[in-house]
User: Fold this.
Amino acid sequence: MPTQNIEEYLRDQGGKPTLRFLTCGSVDDGKSTLIGRLLYDSKLIFEDQLAALEADSKKLGTQGEDIDFALLVDGLAAEREQGITIDVAYRYFATDKRKFVVADTPGHEQYTRNMATGASTAELAVILIDARKGILTQTRRHSYIVTLFGIKDVLLAVNKMDLVDYDESTYRAIVASYEQFANELAELNVTAIPISALKGDNIIHASKNMPWYAGPTLLEALETVEVDTDVGGKAFRMPVQWVNRPDLNFRGYSGTIASGQIEPGTEVKILPSERTSVVARVVTYDGDLSTAGAGQAVTLVLADEVDVSRGDVICSVSEPAQLSDQFAVHLLWMSERALFPGRQYYLKTGTRTVPCVLTDLKHKINVNTLETQPAKRLELNEVGVGNISLSERIAFDPYRESRALGSFILIDRQTYATVGVGLFDFSLRRAQNVMWQALTVDKEHRAAIKHQKPCVVWLTGLSGSGKSTIANLLESRLHDLNRHTYVLDGDNIRHGLNRDLGFTEADRIENIRRIGETAKLMVDAGLITIVAFISPFRSERRMVRDLMCEGEFFEVFVDTPLDVCEARDTKGLYKRARAGEIRNFTGIDSVYEPPEAAEMVMHTETESAEESVERLLSSLQERGILTVD
Assistant:
């Protein structure tokens, strides 16, 4: 009998729909307390958890002798000590009508990235507002992020009504103000509920303290709200996580179905290769399936020997995903180091990771007014709209059609930290219109008739370190050796190609991006290209290195101390910078990031330019750059 009861219970639970929601809002609006009270009043806390909660409340709580429900969710030591939420806490519970996965997200501005993490998988948002404070900047920011991630249903919980004596006019004024703000957002369904999470008003049962409110309680609203979760009815998509090859007799492609359904005999297309095949088997640990749908982890065996790798997307032939390498995107920046157009990152979407660059930042969005503002960079927690270019084509769907294939994260190429999250809006038309034109004469042919191997000799260092002197002398020596060269000097380039750029960090990044692309063209022409630029940032020098083929980028760090450069001050720039006449001057009020693994280091304070150039020529000769006629 007990076994039957357990089986019945599991069948009953398995048949219930699941709602994923998050709680968000400004700091100290009562999000953790709300979830704790919800679990407590729903009788979903075990006796040992309750005993621990009572003990922790006396030791760490903020409610005197009463239970501090926030401690049920705030599990980190730092959270309990400060009385705030830092990380995203997930809790699972169920009622007779539904199962729930709730993400308690932090309210502090510096942890907005964690709130975005919770929003990325939620279907509904509970936005809390402290009745004493009303709508705050973080309330607006979280509301905008909620709509950005496609959440259309919001429960507006006006909390701490007990602290305003359950005043109806206070509640009505807050709701009216929020609805006015929400009307300016994308389509949003707002249900407002006055509550006291601490006292339990309108959480499970209707509050006797607010007879003027006749709407649903919070739990009733959660149990009855209808959200659009029909990913099973959409076109089939499955990002390939790994190639399953346990032995010579089996090859399958494993992943979690993002949308749609699949069954043996279905014709599919593999992207980005655009090869087609037929599904022979749908394999799981428990055996083959006759059909599988969204959310299931499966291994697909195809009828043909086609090339499929991790990061590819298997999709419906009749409704395939799109392919592109250039996109219009929305971005939420999550790093303390600003985002600048031209700087390279890794973009990860689904199971695929590719290098990318933000080519254009169109504007950022003021979360208070929802107005667009011109911007050259994005700071921590700012939202912007721009264009992104990838190193190769990927399969995608616009975010409004698919969360799985329409979202991405940006990863710093040096630290591998996640620095941003974004949504694909649409493919740029030029991605389809601009094709690579194959040419009969290529780089190898151009270099062969010059009897040399093309490369970039990239001289980096502070102003006054001797880069231009060395570049000029190097070209003269190479000219004597009948080599074909060209010098790109920082000052000379700013008279023409880069005359529109200043010396802000954003302009410095664009400065190097343009020079990198120019140097690449010159290498393609078969030239030994000598570049003399301060190029203060490692990320941009790495970006140029990545543009070249292996062995074509030769970085030379002209490592001259600042005091030596300043003593030379051949252009009088340091004197003007010290006097405040020049801003963003490298070495004075703008950082220089020295190379960590340059191919050569020069010390011009102890070595003459001639000696430095001779060492450089010897090194180029050893690397086969200066081949013999």
Q: What stands out?
A: The radius of gyration is 30 Å. Residues 323-433 form a domain with the Elongation Factor Tu (Ef-tu); domain 3 fold (CATH 2.40.30.10).
